[in-house]
Design goal:
Blueprint lengths: L16 H18 L6 H11 L3 E5 L7 H11 L9 E6 L4 H10 L4 E7 L12 E5 L7 H13 L4 E5 L5 H17 L8 H9 L2 H16 L3 H8 L7 E8 L6 E8 L9
């Protein structure tokens, strides 16, 4: 199945911001409900230990992604070498500030957010730390994906990319089940809003966008070898890259990890 580059409605600049927030709220709820990115916790802990970074800058955060639960898991896994608390900063080109504030308040100080617009290809230099992306790298064409990796390398920061969508019929089937679950669970998404019910049940724009964008996400996703091909085009030769799949949890998680190379330190042990 070849990669198909097509638009996703909710990341278009003309898409109404209030509907975009409802879509990202639903995705956030689903991430927490199914804990889909729990398998990456141990991998992330090893990367933060290797890079000695206790700060994470999450790009394209949507409504906060998996970080509320993932930060708790990482806190429980931290080694004596990484005794200090991990600090996470959420960012987005179109920040859902209401959702960001909700995650910050619930995180007991582990998570903060950048209130301005943060372009993943040109991250503000005052945002320092290991960069992460969850379910968002597939939005970008190869040249834009290269710009994201190059910007991280130019800043001397490591980057970890994780994707649940996959170019496979099974992943598309899971997308239908995921959207159906979100459709049924909409009344439990917080904060409760009558308008959310209106745009879900009476005028079902939200489930349509979730389903359409979810299927397109699967068709746009890069495979590990394709992500490595993009990384190989970087001008920085002092970075080491690893890509693969974590075949645990509800669905495999595709990942790409890049960190500055140091002779005395391996990316993964």
């Amino acid at each position: 199945m070849r990669r198909v580059q097509f638009i996703e409605f909710h990341d278009q600049p003309w898409f109404p911001s209030f509907l975009r927030d409802y879509v990202t709220d639903a995705l956030q709820f689903g991430f927490n409900l199914f804990n889909v990115y729990a398998p990456v916790a141990a991998l992330l802990e090893r990367v933060t230990e290797s890079t000695r970074s206790r700060s994470i800058v999450d790009l394209c955060s949507g409504a906060g992604g998996p970080w509320l639960e993932l930060s708790k898991k990482l806190d429980s896994l931290k080694s004596p070498k990484n005794a200090s608390a991990l600090q996470i900063c959420l960012t987005d080109k179109y920040p859902n500030l209401g959702a960001f504030e909700k995650v910050r308040a619930a995180s007991e100080g582990r998570i903060r957010f950048y209130s301005g617009s943060a372009d993943a290809t040109k991250v503000p230099r005052d945002l320092k730390g290991l960069r992460t992306m969850f379910t968002s790298f597939h939005h970008f064409l190869p040249d834009a994906g290269l710009a994201i990796l190059q910007d991280a390398a130019d800043a001397g920061e490591g980057i970890c990319i994780f994707e649940i969508p996959k170019r496979a019929p099974s992943a598309i089937g899971l997308t239908f089940g995921f959207v159906l679950a979100l459709f049924a669970c909409t009344p439990w998404i917080r904060p409760f809003r009558w308008s959310r019910l209106l745009w879900t049940y009476l005028l079902p724009i939200i489930p349509f966008v979730l389903l359409f964008d979810g299927v397109v996400s699967c068709l746009r996703t890069y495979r590990p070898a394709e992500m490595l091909d993009i990384a190989d085009r970087l001008t920085a030769s002092d970075y080491q890259w690893e890509a693969g799949e974590l075949a645990t949890g509800i669905a495999p998680v595709t990942y790409l990890i890049g960190c500055p190379r140091e002779p005395s330190r391996e990316l993964m042990r």
